Structure to design on (226 residues):
């Protein structure tokens, strides 16, 4: 009898749980939000290389000194320039003199925009400038923007659920479940600018905007229906 009583209690509780679950009516929606922002942290890789100038060699000390002076002239803080790598090669393997070894040195320059890069190239030794390219870019407040779009996605989901239920004379209840949908890396968006040929008395100054970063969030939300 004792075991029969326990079995009947278990069956009663299971049936009660199923009844309670059946009473919970819910609506599931997805809300999304996105914004486009202009990067204010752009990291440019600049590679300088030694070269032969007649009978002498233009060394890395001289080339690096020219780079430091150039960024100072453009008003870029000195601490924005850091060394990335150092490498070299022997331009003629048959020769063994010290000045036969030609070295290269790469730097990372942090800038807030690229409009000064044209001027920087003009200030550097063209023979010693081996390569320049963008390593990466971001925004100093990127986490704030990510938080902003997540909040926007939640609000969009709530708004969608609200007007859908209102269309059938139902009311929105409490949140039952929330899930962030992760799409992985989101690439940049190109921002067009038609004022590319403008010049003034001081010469051409680039007005071409950098690529936009698209920050997007999507949330899956389940609400109870009252």
């Amino acid at each position: 009898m004792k075991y029969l009583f326990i079995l009947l209690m278990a069956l009663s509780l299971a049936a009660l749980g199923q009844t309670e679950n059946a009473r919970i009516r819910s609506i599931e929606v997805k809300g999304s939000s996105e914004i486009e922002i202009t990067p204010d942290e752009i990291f440019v890789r600049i590679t300088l290389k030694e070269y032969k100038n007649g009978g002498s060699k233009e060394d890395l000390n001289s080339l690096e000194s020219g780079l430091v002076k150039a960024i100072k002239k453009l008003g870029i803080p000195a601490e924005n320039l850091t060394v990335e790598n150092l490498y070299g090669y022997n331009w003629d393997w048959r020769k063994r003199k010290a000045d036969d070894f030609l070295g290269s040195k790469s730097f990372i320059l942090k800038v807030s925009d690229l409009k000064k890069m044209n001027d920087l190239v003009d200030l550097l030794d063209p023979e010693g400038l081996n390569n320049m390219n963008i390593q990466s870019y971001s925004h100093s407040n990127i986490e704030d923007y990510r938080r902003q779009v997540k909040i926007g996605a939640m609000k969009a989901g709530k708004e969608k659920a609200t007007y859908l239920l209102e269309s059938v004379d139902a009311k929105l209840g409490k949140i039952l479940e929330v899930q962030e949908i992760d799409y992985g890396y989101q690439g940049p968006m190109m921002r067009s600018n038609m004022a590319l040929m403008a010049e003034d008395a001081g010469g051409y100054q680039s007005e071409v905007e950098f690529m936009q970063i698209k920050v997007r969030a999507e949330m899956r939300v389940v609400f109870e229906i009252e």
Notes: The beta strands are 26-37, 41-49, 51-53, 56-58, 81-90, 101-111, 129-138, 172-181, 188-189, 212-225. The helical segments are 2-23, 60-73, 117-123, 142-166. The first strand starts at residue 26 and ends at 37. The CA atoms of residues 83 and 107 lie 4 Å apart.
